[in-house]
Design brief:
Layout lengths: L1 H26 L146
Length: 173
């Protein structure tokens, strides 16, 4: 019986270590340019997990229902893009332009959205659990039913134009 508990504990520790490493790799600036996912295409139901698409020019594309976990889209232009129901868990969207994009019911758990432009974005029902929105522009964004639990909002420009105070987590103060 003790062996089973030991193996179970080891498996849990291994999974926790993997979970902690994943965001670090997705957010790291110290990766080479070797493609991780060479099949990524900006289309509905896209299979773009782990792709490195920094600075992509995807304005107005339809990537609805796509699998984009841990994708690198930092500095990308996704303005007016349809990203409804897409899964961006632990993705790097730092500095990305998402102005007037449709993120309705998208999954952005633990995503890096630092300094992203989300002005006028439809973020109805979006999951931003533990996302980093420090310095992001949310002016005019629709956030009805949005999940903001543990989301970092310090320095973000809120929907009404005021800047979120230092220490704003889960709500803009």
């Amino acid at each position: 019986m003790a062996i089973n508990h030991t193996l179970g504990a080891a498996a849990i520790c291994g999974l926790l270590a993997l979970a902690c490493m994943t965001p670090a790799a997705a957010w790291s600036d110290k990766l080479d340019d070797t493609p991780m996912n060479t099949t990524c295409k900006p289309e509905p139901l896209a299979q773009c997990s782990w792709a490195r698409m920094q600075g992509a020019k995807w304005a107005g594309v339809d990537i609805s229902d796509g699998a984009l976990q841990a994708i690198r889209l930092d500095g990308a232009d996704l303005s007016r893009a349809n990203l409804a129901r897409a899964n961006f868990q632990i993705a790097n969207l730092a500095g990305a332009n998402l102005m007037a994009s449709n993120l309705e019911d998208a999954h952005l758990h633990a995503a890096n959205l630092q300094n992203a432009n989300l002005m006028l974005a439809n973020m109805t029902g979006v999951n931003l659990l533990d996302a980093d929105l420090r310095g992001a522009n949310l002016r005019g964004a629709k956030l009805q039913r949005a999940i903001l639990i543990a989301a970092k909002l310090e320095g973000a420009t809120w929907v009404d134009g005021h800047v979120c105070a230092a220490g704003s987590v889960g709500e803009c103060r």
